[in-house]
Amino acid sequence: MVRKSLFRKVIGSVFLTVILVGAPFKLVSVAELEESRDEIKEAQSFYTAMAGIHEAMARLATGEIQDPHNPPNPDWQVEIYPAPSPESRGDTLCIRTVQRQENFLPYCSSNDPLIIHYLLDGDGVSKEIFYYDPSQPEARSLNPDAGSLPIYVITSTGVEGSKKKTIQTEVVIQKNQAYLQGEVGRR
User: Fold this and answer.
1) Which of 46, 49, 90, 113 qualifies as a cystine partner to 79, CB 3.0-4.6 A?
2) Among 87, 114, 77, which Cα is nearest to 99's?
3) Which residues 6+ apart lie within 8 Å of 144 measured at CB?
4) How many whole angstroms from its chain centre is CA 97?
5) 154 with 50: CB under 8 angstroms?
6) Residues ≥6 apart with Cβ < 8 Å to 76
7) What are phi and psi of 158, to 5 degrees?
8) pLDDT of residue 16
9) Tell me, what's the pLDDT at 84?
């Protein structure tokens, strides 16, 4: 009898010790799991936003999207929406994404369209477009030459779950090719 009672106490003590020692590890594991899920959603939202950048670059490179003005209009802008897109207004062309509804990546929405516009000088006095001329020592110029190309700014927002990532980048387009100038900013 005494042996059974002692055995039960020892087993109970071991079991209680295992529970007390193991419980914090379980809590740490759950917290790490949640953190990992957040990191995955954040990475997915980044790559979803990058898919939007690539749609815009492809449509600029093929000439599907282009400024109809000659000389280029600094106020020209394109907004890409999921279906249906709102009506174009003024110098802003509103168009639908090329994505199919069944495989839709959320890099554009009615609140956060995919946006394309020219890189402007931003001096506050006049609106002048920056150009890229590979033959010049300073690649950016406000004075377009025969070989210079306008620099576009593309803004794309990717959304996955509660995570949202906005990427803004500069792009130069030349004869069915798109050159990514560099990432201007990520939010």
Assistant:
1) 113
2) 114
3) 71, 129, 131, 150
4) 15
5) no
6) 67, 69, 91, 93, 117, 118
7) -100, 140
8) 66
9) 80
Mean pLDDT by 10 residues, the chain (187 residues): 64 68 62 81 92 93 89 93 87 90 84 93 80 76 79 93 91 68 47
Residue 138, token pair as written in the block: 């300073």
Q: What CA–CA distances, in Å, run from 55 to 36, 61, 96, 102, 108?
A: 29, 10, 11, 17, 11
The four Cα atoms 63, 51, 53, 112 give a dihedral, to 10 degrees, of: 110
Amino acid in the structure at residue 92 = T
> Backbone phi, then psi, for 140, in 5-degree steps?
-95, 140
